[in-house]
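Exercise 3.2. Students should predict the tertiary structure of the chain below and write it as C-alpha cells, then compare their answer with the key that follows.

Predict this chain's 3D structure.
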Amino acid sequence: MAEYATLMVLHTYTPNNGDALNGSRREWDVRIREWFGSSAVQNGKPVIYCGDLNVAPFPIDLTSPAKFARPSAGFGIPKFKEKMEPEDRPDDIGQPGCTPAEQNRFAQLLENGKLVDAYRAKNPPAAGAGLDDALPKEEHKEHTFTWRGPESG
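Answer key:
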C-alpha cells in the first residue's frame, strides 16, 4: 500500500479460487472486506483499490458468460468435490473468478467498503451480455474469450 497526503493506493493480487477450491480465496475475501470495514479505513483517506482482483463481477464483464459459468479446463469440475470443504456450495462450482459465490463476495466488498467499480461506472452495461449474444454459435471458436476486454479473434 502507498499512502499519499490525500489518499491511499492498495494494489493486490487476489488469490485465484483454483481447481481444488481450497478456501484461501474465501479467507482472502473475508479479510479484505474486514480491512475495508475497519474504522481506520472508513474514517481515513479515500482508498484506490486496484490490481488483479481475480473476479468478473457481472456476466456482462465476460465476453462469453455461458462459457465462463460452466466448469472447464480442470476448474470447478465435480471430480474435485472430494477436495472441497464442507461449506462449499454449488455456487462455488465453475471457472475461478466467475462463480456466483465470488461475485456475491465481491459485491459485499464494494458495499461494505463503500467502493465504486470505476470500470463499470464509466462503462455501464449495454444491451446484450457479452459475446454469447453478439455472435452466432459457430463463430465462437474463432474468438478469444476475455474478462472486461474486447473479444479478439
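Discussion points: Strands lie at 2-3, 8-13, 47-52. Residues 73-82, 127-136 have pLDDT under 50 and may be disordered.
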